[in-house]
Every structure is written in structure tokens, then in C-alpha cells.
Amino acid sequence: MDKILKSILKRVKPTPADRERLERATAELIEQTDATCSKLGIKAKAMLVGSAARNTWLRSERDIDIFILLPEGLSREELERQGLAVAREVAGKRGKESFAEHPYVTMRFKGFDVDLVPCYDIAKPSEIRSAVDRSPHHQRYITKHLKSELLDEVLLAKQFMLGIGCYGAELKVQGFSGYLCELLVLHYGSFEKLVESASGWKPSTVIDLERSYPDPSEAERMFEGQPLITIDPVDASRNVGAAVSMRSFATFVRACQDFAQGPGEQFFFPKPVRRLSAREIQATLERRGTTLFCVAFSPPDVVPDVLYPQLRKAERTLVTRLARAGFGVMRSDVWSNSQALILLELAVTRLPRVRTRVGPPVSIEVGDFIQTHLKSKRKFAGPFVDTAGRLIFEIEREQASAREVLEQALGERTTLGRHVGEAIARGYQIYKGKNIVQLCKDEKVSEFISEYLTRCLPWYR
Amino acid sequence: MDKILKSILKRVKPTPADRERLERATAELIEQTDATCSKLGIKAKAMLVGSAARNTWLRSERDIDIFILLPEGLSREELERQGLAVAREVAGKRGKESFAEHPYVTMRFKGFDVDLVPCYDIAKPSEIRSAVDRSPHHQRYITKHLKSELLDEVLLAKQFMLGIGCYGAELKVQGFSGYLCELLVLHYGSFEKLVESASGWKPSTVIDLERSYPDPSEAERMFEGQPLITIDPVDASRNVGAAVSMRSFATFVRACQDFAQGPGEQFFFPKPVRRLSAREIQATLERRGTTLFCVAFSPPDVVPDVLYPQLRKAERTLVTRLARAGFGVMRSDVWSNSQALILLELAVTRLPRVRTRVGPPVSIEVGDFIQTHLKSKRKFAGPFVDTAGRLIFEIEREQASAREVLEQALGERTTLGRHVGEAIARGYQIYKGKNIVQLCKDEKVSEFISEYLTRCLPWYR
Highest-confidence range of A126-135, B16-25, B90-99, by mean pLDDT? Predict the structure, then answer.
């Protein structure tokens, strides 16, 4: 185990040269930002936050988060106006404005991805006005509590999450943020102890470093339905693991169980997905015997944190609509890059014309149920009573083809998420079965489809 | 309403001539039986029971039940030996031995179906040794309590049950026995009041004429899961409605609701099922778009009360096996006459080769689940984790064709009921889809298939 962890550390820990490069860049950015504040006569100061500030960054991470702290007294509009003025001036032409909870500026700088984020400088974390105001407090908490012996442990935890595909709180991943990894290591005392404990996690696990909730079941109730509940030490009303989906949670727990049984480098650095050729994709589809529908459209121009929840909403809507029409969806997925894709894999794409319509149970008056169906031209048989005592009509199925159901559901924009709904309304294409290889000329799509067809937890690849 | 009931009574009430014919036959049978007892030196006496004894028989009913009451002191073997000796002698060559809870003799006599049933003459109903010993007590109870004004009401209730297809406690019908109809009328005071009350019945309705259970919920617990609980006035440990299936229960309740809303003769005398021609059967199947499998075999030589539960057991087994293999059965039915048939109607008869295998939830150790499937040649994809956090493998389906599943299940005799299992093991044929018309050369089969395809509550025909 030790040998493996040492070998991993060697690969993920920034070298002195890496560190120097980062430090030079951050120093320069802080200086520039502070100078810009003076120059524009704005009362604000720059603060480096995130893993770069805490020495918990992986060599592969190239993110610098500079927060521009403005006085509490400002109105929201003023904060945005003054903060963005500074950020824009610092970034210059390299800058690009983005919008999460409120606007910020991103730029490339000396090989790093830099975020310049205006926020309020609020003394008490309980009084913050938006999520970003919390970051400086996180920064202070971790700096204070995370001893230097634990820095390597955090790197291992983060690389482990990265390897198993669960790193990042962004909505595309719905996984573990860097801050969450730091808190977990802080709580358990080492990467190995984290792995050991997490092997036994059940959904609704509560981790409460500051014992903000004397009774953990209270925290469980407060964050009901969230698989991992990690109380933010700087704000007990917040679950740092709120983004962790059941899929990420279960993946991490399984990874810990497997790693505890047989540690290996493949958890940190899994083999990449092998890209299948067009012929292999067709052969795999043939072998599976299912029908894969792929809805393709131009992705709307929104950030991934807006796009992915909408893609998943659209996916759920389509799955539900198909299921209601009698077409069980075996597996589905979404993806976006230069194109947005919704995959739906079905066992059956045609159903018989007749279907069963179940009436109210015997203890409930039938009302118009019988009369309505009795007169209907769509009646095949009924009313009769089945062995369970239910009243049954057999009537004509509205839609006997899955494609019809799909096309109808795609026509109802409102249930697909706002931007995705609009994008689909502008136009889409359905690729069915082997025709999907037409999309696979795009290397990225081909990778996604290959991963879908050979899907496997990364450490089993 | 009154007009309808009067008109029905006119059709179902035996005429004086009918009555005379019956009385002559029963008197002769009683006399013969008593004489035979003397002749054989057997200490026993004949008793007429059932509707013939109570003046609650419908003109269409031609049953005479003669019970041969033997002394309590006899052993079971002696009871059967002596009782059957009398019955055989009375019936002579016309007799046929049958076996329910114990043996009895049936015969045709002057146009009537006669049962000659040996039983113990037991003073207290609570001390009876088998179900048949109860009949003389029922006889005495009804004779004592059912006033002559109620006799017509019983006839209406029985004809109503007959019309809606719920008359008879035999296991083919699983409906309402004559005795049950008598008790219901006795309890509610008239046919109309019965209909009115039953319109509001919910499953687990308790009817307790003698208030044997001061707390009805106790009766409900005692007969849990039985839709209609009618406590036997002569034996509180027995539910007279035990045979009533959920289907019969719900059918009767719906019929009462509909009759109360719009009474009509069609409840008592529904139109017969129209027999479809071979061409119509094929067209109906085509229109439904489903696949109908019909398993046909020679019925085993057992009474219907033994055969039907086994046919239904076999039906349930096949439905379950198909469902487990991924083939939902839309509707199914059984039937027997010169052939035994099990019908299974499926929406889909072929499934893709791949299927999903779900592992244990995240809170449970996986054990060998992963290793077993990982090495399997039948693996398509996995292990991976789905959005619900479940561990998934995609593996090759054992049986991708419904017919294969069906044939395999039919090969496993033990799960099909003893006699039916043996009969199927001797040989069967599967008719698929339109081939079923080959069976329809038999008029009775054709009637059954026609009824199946146009199924409808009788009063809606």
C-alpha cells in the first residue's frame, strides 16, 4: 500500500519548479488586482483562495482563484459594477465574462485558468449574501486546521476521486469538490483512514467536524435525501457534499471497498477508454440487440452548470414519457461538446396496438370510466374484472412506436428545461441504431459512444 | 324495477309441475335409500339437503342432494364403506363414484343430477369431522330461519349471480354458493336491499348473522385476505364465502352498482357470447397486435375442483416465469373440456440479447457479485453504477425468446400442479398466434376463444 501511495504522490505532487511557477503567477495577479483597485479608486482587496492558496493542488490542476473582496456596505449592483470593473481591467482582452450565482471573469494567464470573482468581505460566515462570499472563510478554516502533514493525504484523496471519475462539484460531474476532499482528510486523519471508513458508508452519512449538530439525526433530517452530508464548519446550514449525487457517492464507496481489498495504481490512474472503430460500434450494437436512439442538437450557449441539469431533465422527461407509453428505457445518458446528445437505449421499439387500461379499485365508484370507454371507438374489449378485482378495458394504444413517442415529447418544449428546450425547438436529429456511427466521425462523440457501450468503473478497465 | 323482478321471477321460479316432478323424484330417492339401508342392515337414514329441500331452486337447476347420515361412532373407513355400499346399491349401474373431501356417488335420475353423499350424523356443528357433515346443519338453519316470503328473493339473488357469472362455489367459478345467497338474502331482508348494500362493499366485508364475533375486526383478522367474510351461523370458524375470489367479489359489487343505477333483465339473462368465425378470430388477433400462445394438452382425469386450481397454478407459474425472463403477460386464462388449454397473451416475444443485472445496494458488501460477472463470458458491460447508486452489469440474456422460456417452464413438471404437470409431461402442443384457429374446429374451444377475445362483463354484452 505504502509503495503505491508513494508512487502516486510522486506523480501528482507539484515539483518545486511547478510551485515556483504558480507562486510567481499568483503573486503577479494579486499585485495587479490590488494595483487596479487603487487605480480605479475602488476600495477592495485581492485574496487567493482555493487549492492554489492551500498547497493542495494536483500537478494536473492549473486553476487560480482570485477573489476580489469588496465592503459589506455596497449594494449588490455596486458590488457587481465595481468588482467586474476591476476584474475586466486585470484580465483585459484575455478575459471572458461568465455567470454562476453572480458574474465573474475568467482568463488564461501563464498557462493557468484564472477566475477573478468579486465577493463581499463579510466577517461572520453566517451573514454571507451569496455562496461565493463563503470561499474566503473556507480559505481561512483550512489554512488554520489542515496541518502540513496532511497536505499529501489531500493530494491522494483528490487524485483518487479524479481517477474514479468523482472529482468536482460541477453539475456535469456531481462529485466531490476539492474543499470536500480537504474536509474528509481532516476529519479522518489520513487518506487510508478515509478509504477505510468510507468503505462502510451508507446513504445519508453525516460528517460534522465542528459538531454543529449534537444529534446527527437532526442533520440527516435537515439534508434529507442527500447521500453525503458534510456539515460546512464555517456554516452549519450548508452541506459541503450537496452536489454529490447518489451515483458519485456509490462509486466512491465501491472504490474504497475495492481499494481496501486490493490497492493499486489503477484507482488513481485508470486506463483510458479505448475508442471503438465505426465497425466495432456497429458490431457491439448488433450484439446487444437493443435499439439506441440518439437525439442530437446544437447545444445552447450556456455554461455547463446550466446545461447539464437541463440535459438530465430532458433525459428524465423522455425516459418517463417512453415508460408511460410502455417502452422501458434500458439505459440512457447525456453528453455535450460541439453537439448535445441524449442517448436512449430501448429493448423494444414497437408494441401491439392493444393496451390495458385499469379502472378504479372495487371500493371506488367508477364514475364515467365505463361509459367513456364503452362508447369509444378505440375499445378492443371490456369492461371486465381481472383476478385482482380490477376493472379493465382493453383499448387502442395511442402510440405503438417508440420513435413517435420520442418525437412527440421532443415537440413539447416546456418539459425539457428552458435552454435545452429552445435548442431542441430550433432543430434536432434522431439517429437510430447503427446510424449513430454517422455522428462518430467526431472523435469526441466516438469516445463518448465507446465509453457508453463498454461502460465499466474506471478501475476495472 | 318491480316489473323487471316480476318478469325474472316468472322465468326462474319452478312451476307447480316442476315442483311436483322434483318432489316425486326426491321422495322416491329417499324411500329407496332408506329401504336400502334396512336391506343392507346399515344403521343410517337419508336426508334431502340443498336448494331442492328448501324450495330455493331455480327452474334451471336440476340438482338433488341426498345425504346418508351415519352414526357418529363409526370409524372413517367404516363410514365410507357403509355409506358407499348404500349409495352404490341405490344408484346401481347409473352411479359414478367421485371424490371431493371424501367419496360420494353421482347419478342421473329422472332428469335430475343426484349426489348421494355419506356423512356423519353429528348433533353439534362444532364437532363435525368433515365439511359435508355441516350440510344437514345448514339445512336445518335455513329451514328454520328463511321465511317463505324470502324464497322468491333467494331465487332472484341466485339468478342474478348466475347471470353475472358468479354463481357457484366450485373452484372453476370461485363464486357464491346457493347457501351463501340464502344467507345474504336472510341478512339483508330482500334482493333489492342486498343489491343496495353490496354496491358499497369493500374487500374484507364481514357479514355475521348470529353476531358470533362481537368485534368484526376480529373476524377480518381471522379470515384475512378473503374478500367476502360471511360467518357460517352454524360454525363460526367457517367463512361461507371462502370460495369467493376477488374477481367474483368485484364482479358482483360492480354488477350491484350498475343494477342499482339502471336495472335490467340483462343482469339475470345476459346475451350469450357470440361465437367468432375462424376468420374473425384471425382478424381480431391481427388487430390486437399481440402474440397469443395456447398450450394445449389432454386434461388429467380428475374432477373440476381438482383440475381448475392446478390449471390456475400452472398458469401463474408460466406467467411468473415469463415475467422473470422479461416477457410481461398482458392477459392469460385457462379452460378445460375435451382439451385443457392455457392461454398466454404477450406484447413482445423477443427481447434483445443484453439484459441488466442489478447488484446489491451500496450499503451491502458485493461479495462475489463483481468477480463472478467480471470473468463471465456472458458479460457485455459493467460493473458500473447507475443514477440510483445501484451496481450494474449488462450480461447476456439466457433466453431471448418467449417460446423458449415457455417450453423450459413446461418441462419442469413439479411447478405445474401434480395432475396437470403429469398431463403436460405426457405431451402438449403450443399454438402460436393465428394457428389457434386449428383448435377452434372444436365448437367449445371456439366459444372459449371468442369469449376471451371479446371479453366483457355479461350485462354489457
Answer: B16-25
Provide mean pLDDT across the span B226-250: 96
Contact A348, B421 (CB under 8 A): no
Q: Where are the strands (E) in A100-187, listed by range?
A: 103-109, 112-120
- Judged by CB atoms closer than 8 Å, whether chains meet at B245 and A454 is answered as no
pLDDT at residue B101, as a whole number: 74
- Centroid of chain to Cα B245: 8
Question: Which residues of B are less than 8 Å from A454 in CB distance?
Answer: 381
Rounded to an integer, what is the distance from CA B212 to the centroid of its chain? Answer: 27
Q: Give me the residue from B352, B380, B383 closest to A347, CB to CB.
A: B352
Residues 6+ apart with CB under 8 A from A340: A296, A297, A298, A299, A300, A307, A311, A334, A420, A423
> Residue A456: which of B227, B365, B382 has the nearest Cβ?
B382
Q: Which site among A354, A392, A396, A452 would you substitute to test the B interface, given the most B Cβ atoms closer than 10 Å to its Cβ?
A: A354
Q: Give the confidence band of B254 by pLDDT, cuts at 50, 70, 90.
A: very high
Q: Which of B289, B348, B454 faces A381 most closely, judged by CB atoms?
A: B454
CA A55, CA B66: separation in Å to the nearest integer?
A: 99
pLDDT for B385-427, tens place per residue? 999 999 999 999 999 999 999 999 999 988 999 999 999 999 9
pTM of this prediction? 0.85
Q: Indicate the pLDDT class of residue B288, thresholds 50, 70 and 90.
A: very high
CB A347 within 8 A of CB B325: no
Q: Is the dihedral of CA B456, B458, B459, B461 positive or negative?
A: positive
Q: Which of B355, B385, B456, B461 to mutate against chain A (most A CBs within 10 Å)?
A: B385
Largest CA distance in chain A: 84
Are the beta carbons of B366 and A201 separated by less than 8 Å?
Answer: no
pLDDT, tens only, B428-449 = 999 999 999 999 999 999 999 9
Nearest residue in B to A284, CA atom: B380
Helix axes A151-164, A2-12, angle to 10 degrees: 90
pLDDT tens per residue, range A437-457: 999 999 999 999 999 999 999
Å between A36 CA and nearest CA of chain B? 46
Q: Are B129 and B102 in contact (CB under 8 A)?
A: no
Subunit contact B455:A382, Cβ cutoff 8 A: yes
What does the radius of gyration of chain A's CA atoms come to, in whole angstroms? 27
Q: What is the C-alpha separation between B338 and B74, in angstroms, rounded?
A: 40
Distance of CA A74 to the CA centre of its chain: 33
Of B439, B440, B414, B442, the C-alpha closest to B429 is: B439
Positive or negative torsion for Cα B49, B52, B54, B58: positive
B371's grid cell: 468477480
Q: Per residue in A198-255, pLDDT tens?
A: 999 999 999 999 999 999 999 999 999 999 999 999 999 999 999 999 999 999 999 9
Distance from CA of A236 to the nearest CA of B (A): 26
Q: Are B351 and A348 in contact (CB under 8 A)?
A: yes
Give the model confidence (pLDDT) of B342-397 as tens digits.
999 999 999 999 999 999 888 787 778 898 999 899 999 999 999 999 999 999 99
**Banded pLDDT at A299 (limits 50, 70, 90):** very high
Residues of chain B contacting A398 with CB distance shorter than 8 Å: none
Domains of chain B, CATH where assigned: 14-133 (3.30.460.10), 148-267 (1.10.1410.30), 278-350+400-460 (3.30.70.590), 354-396 (no CATH)
Distance CA B161, CA B177 (A): 9
- Within 10 A of B11 (CB to CB), how many other CB atoms are there? 14
